UniProtKB/TrEMBL annotation:
Stated name of the protein: ABC transporter ATP-binding protein
Region listing for Disordered, in residue ranges: 1-41
Entries under SMART domains matching the protein: AAA
PROSITE patterns: ABC_TRANSPORTER_1 (PS00211), ABC_TRANSPORTER_2 (PS50893)
Functional summary from the UniProt entry: Probably part of an ABC transporter complex. Responsible for energy coupling to the transport system. Part of an ABC transporter complex. Responsible for energy coupling to the transport system.
Signal sequence region: none
Biased composition (Low complexity): 23-38
Protein family (similarity comment): Belongs to the ABC transporter superfamily.
One Pfam match: ABC_tran
Membrane topology: Peripheral membrane protein
Source organism of the structure: uncultured Chloroflexota bacterium
Length: 340
């Protein structure tokens, strides 16, 4: 497969099958619909990239996506979760036009993607895909050449190409790698080079398939910072991940895939609270939410307390319990001062 540059750029029931890709839902949620919301609860923008009833089967007959309708909204920080083989990578390849659905459509900015050269060029200029496996993405001899390839293909001037490459290199902190042969890099280094190659294209939507897999914790933290910076600059970002703590802390919106279908969709702190959803996708509930649920069950926190996304938010909830409330003196919490 060509590189992205070379490609030119109680039990909860399963949700009913839906034609409407937009309205997020949680299985079993009363109204069935939760509004998509940004970090501060503001509604997200219109769908920028969507699948509409997409079914995709590989040549050997494996059906990887089944009648799947999902929408990535402008300005989203979306995390796609799901067990191995649930269809995440197939979805990403479909969103980037590398795979063409057997049924259904992919829409970019509301218009169906055209699978001729011009249509695919436009799609790949606007939607940058970071492949799960960096070896699929990297192909040029040196790191600098690899990152330059996309901008050169866009027909930019030499000066502009250089500026784009320098910027992407700085953003991914790979200054010390630029003259090295790509095939000699470590996995995590290749991963960062692959991300730099996509950044250099300056796409409005970035879809990254397990971008933090194989990165050390420091590199993961920096990548999240980078994704947040890109988000603050107006980019729409969609990642897949098996790291639920990351999804909980970082994403505004989460979708869970299960056998090529959408099993749940909504804010991560709501989706990941549902043990049925989490177990069904062969995931493990983030410890922050597990602890939160235990504190609610123990009566330490109120039933309607807002679910936390980080340990710091959980601590803030505990600290902020109303004085005089029946739980405020719960000894198991009050006694904890960090040194016990
Ligand atoms: N080239 C292929 N030919 C046949 N079947 C494939 C091919 N690629 C993927 N599949 C199958 O399609 C289904 C979805 O695979 P996909 O790679 O999209 O899952 P995933 O959610 O990305 O998994 P992972 O978490 O392991 O990356 C799986 O059943 C997989 O075996
Ligand atoms: Mg995958």
């Amino acid at each position: 497969m060509p590189g992205v540059h070379g490609g030119h750029h109680g039990p909860v029931p399963m949700p009913p099958r839906r034609d409407d890709a937009d309205a997020p839902f949680l299985p079993g949620a009363a109204a069935g619909v939760l509004p998509p919301a940004g970090e501060h609860g503001e509604p997200l923008g219109e769908p920028v990239l969507q699948t509409e009833r997409v079914t995709f089967a590989y040549q050997d007959g494996t059906v990887a996506l089944r009648d799947l309708s999902v929408a990535i909204r402008r300005g989203a920080r979306l995390a796609i979760l799901g067990a191995n083989g649930s269809g995440k990578s197939t979805l990403f390849l479909t969103l980037n036009g590398i795979l063409k659905p057997a049924q259904g459509r992919v829409l970019l900015g509301g218009a169906p993607v055209r699978y001729d050269r011009a249509g695919l060029n436009d799609l790949r200029r606007r939607v940058g895909l970071v492949f799960q496996d960096p070896d699929t993405q990297l192909f040029a001899a040196s790191v600098r050449q690899d990152i330059s390839f996309g901008p050169i293909n866009l027909g930019l001037s030499d000066a502009e190409v250089r500026a784009r490459v320098e910027c992407a290199v700085a953003d991914t902190q790979i200054e010390d790698l630029t003259d090295r042969p790509t095939h000699l890099l470590s996995y995590g280094q290749k991963k960062r080079v692959a991300i730099a190659g996509v950044l250099a294209m300056d796409p409005e939507v970035i879809i990254a398939d397990e971008p933090t897999a194989g990165l050390d914790p420091e590199a993961t933290a920096r990548l999240l910072e980078l994704l947040n910076r890109l988000h603050a600059m107006g980019r729409t970002i969609c990642i897949s991940t098996h790291d639920l703590e990351l999804a909980l802390a970082w994403a505004d919106h989460t979708m869970v895939l299960r056998r090529g279908e959408l099993a749940a969709s909504g804010p991560p702190q709501d989706v990941l609270r549902m043990p049925e959803v989490v177990r069904g996708a062969r995931l493990v509930q983030p410890i922050v939410l597990d602890t939160f649920a235990r504190l609610v069950a123990a009566g330490v926190l109120a039933e309607d307390a807002p679910p936390p996304r980080t340990a710091a938010e959980l601590v803030a909830l505990i600290v902020a319990r109303e004085p005089g409330s029946r739980n405020s003196g719960a000894p198991e919490v009050a006694a904890y001062n960090g040194s016990a």
